[in-house]
Amino acid sequence: MTIVNGKFKRITNSIRFIVILVLLLVIALFPFYWMLVTSIRSDAEVYQTKQSLMPKTVTTFQYKKLLTTTNFLIYFRNSLMVAVSTTLIALIIGFPAAFTLTFLRVRGGKLIARFVFFAYLVPPILVFIPMFSLVNSLRLTNTLFSLVLTYLTFSVPFVTWLLLSYFRSIPTSLMDAALIDGCTKFATMRLIVLPLSGPGVATAGIFAFTLAWNEFLFALTFVTSDKLRTIPVGISGLIMGDVYQWGMIMASAIMASIPAIVFYIIAQRFVISGLTAGSVKG
Amino acid sequence: MNRMIKKFTLDNDNMLGFLLLLPLLVVILGLIVYPLFSVIWLSLNEKTLGMPLQFVGFRNFFALVRNEIFYKTVLNTFLYTIVGVFFKLFYGMIIALFLNQQFRARNYVRGFLLLPWAVPAIVSSLTWRWIYDDMNGVLNFILMKLHIFDLPVCWLANASTALPSVMAVSIWRHAPFFGITLLAALQSIPKELYEAADVDGASKWQKFWNVDLPGISAVLTVVTLIGIIWTFNEFQIVYVLTNGGPAHASEVFSTLSYQTGIKSLRLGEAAAISLMFLPFIGILITITTNWLLRKE
Asked: Which of A27, A91, A281, B101 is 20 to 30 A from A135 in CA distance terms?
């Protein structure tokens, strides 16, 4: 009897497991499935009254339309330029700062570290109004540079914070040994810390890139010329017309996800450590 | 002598450190602290682009507190935050507990479940706007096919469904982040605690309350705090899905601020809106920072 009971329990358990698994996956993935299906349909099929969940025809029509009738490639280029510049500048500023806060004894260092985190949490929506008048008075409206400049507000604190927690894992004994050998403090940054911080810099860089790639509010506010739009604002502009072109819009959504997903796959094992930035370890 | 060397190196550190920190300080002071303070000044002025400031005292604030839309916005923002964060945590916890079991292909499942959070927010917002579409949207199609509704629902254009629909997207997008963070915390709980609980004959439910929850309480606090800050300030999802409409039914702090400041170019009033919410956000950020750095 107990054996039968045990078996019964095992079966119900595994049924329950599968049901939850399928439910979670459907909720997470169905929108992506729908995005993909819409993007490979013809307009007639997208807007037909009798819908179907399965694609009947496969066409690259929407992608061709996206690339030939819109500025999508220009948006893509703009996004790439802004995200790469932001990432590089954030790393150039953040790396020495994190090094200093971890390995040098500076007055007020702890306070600055606290400020860095505070700055990271300050939401853009709180500062974008004064930033708007700042960008205006610097005559930077409608430049990609205005975006790179303002993206530093979140990328620099983020990169610094992430590297800060990464550097804590570098043993100070290495530093001490180098200093005894007559290395200057500045040289230890170049010779000891930099070679050891590959994964940390990569993670910080990938996250900084993703944050800049996804940014919406500043790009919407500081840039009004279509030729200077980044992907998020550019493709959201595709729905403003009278005729919704959902097939094409979903094609643009797929294209916009690709860099993010590629990076995500590369960085997946860093994701958790990066997100929690070593600080949420509890 | 020894002391002198120490002092010398310390000063050396200070000098070098200052140089290395300078760019960071410029960014923080110039791009974060300065704007935060100029919000205060701006809110006391009438400001149109290209024109000099005109001091008006508290007029912008008086205009706000007399404005019904502002109250609606406050209510919506808190509703959006409280309900949103609750379900993000709830659904995130389900994801975390599910992934905390041993099974084949777990890493792949984890990757798939994190996907809503990994793609750009614009992608999720656009896709959901298409799913919610009243004429051709797949949500109405499925619900009518299953005979749950006979007529299509205008999810985003209906005053009673607009805000919940937007909330659902925000939850869908952010819950995986909570899930994956909570999962990391769950996995750091020592196995011995579960073994001890087994010896004591604890049920699954008891294990959850007495081992899991206390084990992840620190992480739970931090993600809740960060979740509140993020959700409270969410702009893009609301902007793309409803832009605060219809008739301000889904207006939140961020969309109102954007509309007032950028669309209507009433910068002073927009600054006043930011300032009304600043104390709340400021307190939250301070609590979060203190909590995270408490061990240092």
From this structure: A91
